[in-house]
Specification:
The protein is mainly beta and 92 residues long. It is built from one helix and eight strands; from the N terminus they run E-E-E-E-H-E-E-E-E.
Length: 92
């Protein structure tokens, strides 16, 4: 599900990228230390998405109903970047 209002998704990991020269050409290599993280900057998170992330419900007026009982689901985040050469790189 795309996230409307997304301004930026930035990796926050302790790692780096480099070019690895192999016999049959150059390859991008990435190294990561510990956990791969990310920061998401949004102009606004729509109420339906906010409710889905936190396991809440949306009322008939579009407001998020916040109570003491929540059942937040597990979810993943994935995004795609385009490199200068036009090739896409996927992160999750």
């Amino acid at each position: 599900m795309p996230l409307p209002g997304t301004v930026e998704i930035a990796p926050t990991d302790e790692g780096g990228a480099d070019v690895f020269d192999a016999d049959n050409g150059a390859y991008d290599s990435s190294s990561y230390v510990e956990n791969i993280g990310h920061e998401i900057t949004n102009a606004d998170i729509p109420p339906a998405v906010d409710a889905a992330w936190r396991g809440l419900k949306v009322d008939e007026n579009g407001g998020v109903l916040v109570g003491t009982e929540t059942a937040a689901p597990y979810f993943g985040v994935a995004w795609r970047t385009e490199r200068v050469n036009g090739i896409h790189r996927y992160f999750r």
